[in-house]
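Entry for zinc ion complex. Fields follow.
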Amino acid sequence: MTYTSESLEKIISHLTGLPSIGRKTAQRIALYLLKQPREEVMELADAIRDLKDKIIFCSICRNISEQPICSICADTKRNGALLCVVQEPHDVFAIERTHEFNGVYHVLGGALSPLDGIGPEELDFRSLLAHIHNNKVEEVILAMNPTVEGDATAMYIDRLISPLGIQVTRIARGVPVGSDLEYADEATLARSLLGRTKM
Ligand SMILES: [Zn+2]
């Protein structure tokens, strides 16, 4: 479909293809923005620009930050000897929401996936090793996704850092809280049995 305005066509084609946004939703968003006060739309435009101009990666943990060192790494109240390795920044947000973890993080930016051409060279394991070395990390918790790629990444990291004499653990995977055993898939249930802890 072609629109009566090139600008409208342009914004719709930019919005289409964003995660979970199809052409119809893109059209609805574009027309909604058109009706909003100019200042509000400009604020959104500025926020999008800031996303690319101001956000950098923490030089220690590779999490997103606006400073060379992120607020978590800079927080002296956190235990820098306890390091949780995750795949993506949103994993940090998820663990932070639990308020159960007082260590620091390292964000890999993905997982090993040979089929997609993501090998050890594509993930920055050197920055992980530097982080462990420079910050005298004593325990590394692997919090990879419970997928084939996550498992492969966890095994790779374990082989990489276990020889350094550092304790390596992996988060237990199990039945989601609030759900029934009968609704858990076999793989989850099997892992919960394997990852059982003492009462
Ligand atoms: Zn950091």
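NOTE: The domain at 6-49 is CATH 1.10.8.420 (Helicase, Ruva Protein; domain 3).
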